[in-house]
Each structure stands twice: as C-alpha cells, then as structure tokens.
Design goal:
CATH superfamily: Vaccinia Virus protein VP39
Number of helices: 10
Helix content: 40-55%
CATH topology: Rossmann fold
Strand content: 15-25%
Mean pLDDT: 94
Low-confidence stretches: 1-6
Structural class: alpha/beta
Order of helices and strands: HHHHHEHEHEHEHEHEE
Strand order of the largest sheet: 3-2-1-4-5-7-6
Number of domains: 1
C-alpha cells in the first residue's frame, strides 16, 4: 500500500536513480543516443520523451503487435526509433513534423537506426498530414507529442481513426504543471482530457509531465 507521502505526490525518483536505472532498463545504442542528444549536436530543443518513456512506447507496441502507427511530433526521431523498432514485420510508422530542420535530422537518425523502410517522416502542418493519412487507417497506435494547443483536435482525429482496441498515447498531459490555468493551451489540453475520457478507456501514468493511455472501445 502506498504511504501517505507517495499519496500526496512525493516522488523518490531522483535524477541519479533514474539515470542508474536507465542504464539497466532502457539502454541506448548508438542510434538512440544520437537522437537523444540532438539538442547538443544540432541546437534543437531537448524536449523528447525520456529514456524510460521511450522504452515504454516500444514495450506497448510490441505487446499489441502494432503494424500501423502515427506519431504526431517527430523532433529528432528518438521516440520514432522506439516506435519503428517495435513494429511487427511489414509495419509502417508515419511521423509528422512541421520543422524542416527537425524532419531532416530525424530522417538521418531513423536511417541510422535501420528504419528507412518502415518509418516515413511527413513534413508539414500536422492537421493537414492527418487529413492525408485518414484513408490509410484505422491505426493501431497514435502517439501525440506536439503543440499542446491542438491536443484536443488530435484527440478527435485519433478517436475517429483508431481501430477497436487501438491505443492513443499522449505525452505532457499535465501541461507542464499549468493544466488548470486559464489560457487557450491549457483549455485545449483540458478538452483533450475530456474527449479522451468520454470516448476511450483511459489511464494516466504519472510521469514527470504525465502520459495518457486511451484504448478505443468496440464500435
């Protein structure tokens, strides 16, 4: 049973503990390490998922035997490598990125990871790319880690395009501790939560900024 400190939200996962356990449970090979350090190597934001969250993505996809996956927000391809490597044979990852610089870096990293035959980086506005992907569904998994002010729109698309039993995964769902503030992005994130809870079977993993899992119900 959780003690009163942990129930109150206290965490014992110090950076040193997380780093130590990442070496055991979520080790990086050269391709993952290069993608993870893209902020140092290329001067882009270091806002990718953490090592443990990345490993969890792969673990979930393998358990589902996923073959059709959409990632909204590519960055340097770190999460994309985890997703692409977890696909079953013949699977396909569509990763959406609005930044030309980030897309180019991600393509190089995905190629270095041996995923050029199963991972496609689609450059452009995410909603336009999702519209283009609509006919290729339904999808097994949709992973959202992009602009927070449109999470509600991404949830609506995911609800309509997941197969029954398919899973929506979304990072940063605590909105950096600002979820309950009165601003447009926070309001969009709250709508995201409401849509997900209404239309999917949901669970929340209390990572540093929250990871939501939502399973599509039978139609």
């Amino acid at each position: 049973m959780a003690d009163s400190a942990s129930r109150a939200g206290q965490t014992y996962a110090t950076p040193a503990i997380l780093e130590h356990l990442a070496r055991l449970h979520a080790p990086h090979d050269a391709a993952l390490d290069t993608a993870f350090r893209a902020n140092e190597l290329h001067g882009i934001p270091g806002i990718q998922v953490g090592p443990h969250e990345g490993a969890l993505l792969g673990w979930l996809l393998r358990g589902m035997e996923a073959s059709r996956v959409v990632e909204i927000g590519t960055l340097a391809g770190f999460s994309g490598i985890h997703l692409g490597r977890a696909l079953r044979a013949g699977g396909r990852l569509y990763s959406l990125e609005i930044s030309e610089k980030h897309a180019a870096i991600a393509r190089d990293n995905l190629r270095a990871a041996g995923l050029e035959d199963r991972a496609e980086v689609m450059l452009g506005d995410a909603l336009a790319s999702l519209a283009a992907l609509s006919s290729r569904g339904p999808f097994d998994v949709i992973f959202v880690d992009a602009d927070k002010g449109r999470y509600d729109q991404y949830a609506r698309w995911a609800i309509d395009h997941l197969r029954p039993g398919g899973v929506l995964i979304a990072d940063n769902v605590f909105y950096f501790g600002r979820l309950l503030e009165e601003n447009p992005e926070a309001a969009a994130m709250r709508r995201f939560h409401e849509l997900s809870a209404t239309h999917l079977d949901t669970a929340l993993v209390p990572t540093p900024d929250g990871l939501l899992l939502g399973r599509a119900r039978p139609r």
